[in-house]
Amino acid sequence: MNKAARSKIRDALLHELAGRRILVMGILNVTPDSFSDGGKFDRLEPALAHAASMREAGADILDIGGESTRPDAIEVDAREEWQRVEPVLAALGQEDGLPLSIDTYKARVAHNAAELGAVVINDVWGMTRDPDMPKTVAETGSLVVATYNRGAANPSLDLRADMAAFVSETYARATQYGIPQEHLIFDPGVGFSKTYEQNLQALANLDVLVDSGRPVLVGVSRKSFIGRMTGRPVEERLSGTLAVGLKVVQMGAKVLRVHDVAHHRDALDMYSEMTNYR
Predict the structure, then answer these.
(1) CA 119 to CA 74: how far, in whole Å?
(2) pLDDT truncated to tens, each residue of the chain (278 aa)?
(3) Would you state the torsion angle of the CA atoms of residues 149, 155, 156, 162, taken in this order, to the nearest 10 degrees?
(4) Which numeric CATH code is attached to 3-276?
(5) How far, in Å, are 57, 58, 272, 276 from residue 269 at the CA level?
(6) Helix (H, G, I), strand (E, B), or coil: what is residue 83?
(7) I need a labelling partner for 130 at 20 to 30 A (CA). Which of 26, 192, 240, 277 fits?
(8) What does the alpha-carbon distance between residue 147 and residue 58 come to, in Å, rounded to a whole number?
(9) How many CB atoms lie within 10 A of CB 43?
(10) Active site residues
C-alpha cells in the first residue's frame, strides 16, 4: 500500500477516534495457540472469511495477531510471527476495507505490517519490550496502542499511582522519539501482569487513562478474570464481557477489542440510543 493511501486510512481513523461513536476492534488471531480461538484462523482462507464476517458484523478496526499473549504462551521469533500474519495483511491491505492493526511487540513485525497497510501498532508491552519499537512507530507514522504492562505482577503496588506514572512515561517516550501525542491510544492492560484484584482495580481506575486526553482501548473479551467471577468456561463468557464493555464505555473508553463483534455492535448501538434519547 502506498503512503498516501495509508495516511488517508490512518487520518480517517483518527477522525473516528475523536468522534462520539464507540469503535469495535475485531480480533483476528492467526495463531495455533491463542486462549480462545487458537487454530481456528491460522490458515489464509478461514482468516479472510472471518475478517469479512467481522466487517459485516460492524467492526471498525481489525487487529491481526501472530503470537499468542496468553499466560505461559510459547514465544515465537519475529520471522515465524511474520510468516503467520503476512499473507493475511497482504490480502486485506489490498482491499478497500477496514483499518488494520498489528498485534505485536516486535518492531520488525510492526514495520513490515505498516508497509502492507496496517495503521495501528497494538503493543501489549507499551513500547518497552523491543527498544526499536518507539522508533518504528515514529518512522511509520502509525497509531500505537500503549498497554499498561509492568511485566510481572506486584500485589502490593499502588496501581492508580503506577498507572499515572505509566501515562507520564509513555508521553515522555513519545516526545523523545517524535511520536505525535495524537497517535497514542492507552490500554489498561487487563490480564497482563496483574492479579485478579488488580485487573478490577485497573478498570476501576480507568479515569487515569481517560483523563490523559487520549482514546482508551479496553480488551477484556473472554478473559480469565471473567471466568473466575462467573465460573464460565472461555466459550461462555460473552455476557460477562458485554457487562464489562458497557461499564467501561460509561467510564470513557473509546474502543472495545472483542471476539464477538456483532453482539458488541448491537449492545453499543442500543446503549448509544438510550443514552442520547430525550
Answers:
(1) 27
(2) 788 999 999 999 999 999 999 999 999 999 875 555 556 767 888 899 999 999 999 999 999 999 977 666 678 899 999 999 999 999 998 766 799 999 999 999 999 999 999 999 999 999 999 999 999 999 999 999 999 998 889 999 999 999 999 999 999 999 999 999 999 999 999 999 999 999 999 999 999 999 999 999 999 999 999 999 999 999 999 999 999 999 999 999 999 999 999 999 999 999 999 988 76
(3) 20
(4) 3.20.20.20
(5) 12, 10, 5, 11
(6) helix
(7) 26
(8) 24
(9) 12
(10) 223, 257
The H or E element that residue 28 is part of is: strand 23-29
CB atoms near residue 250 (< 10 Å): 11
Amino acid at 174: A
3-class SS at 135? helix
pTM (2 decimals)?
A: 0.94
The domain locations on the chain are: 3-276
Phi, psi dihedrals of residue 130, rounded to the nearest 5°: -105, 115
Q: Output the nine-digit C-alpha cell for 106.
A: 516486535
If residue 122 lies in a helix (H) or strand (E), which one and from where to where? Answer: strand 120-123
Question: What does the alpha-carbon distance between residue 104 and residue 82 come to, in Å, rounded to a whole number?
Answer: 10
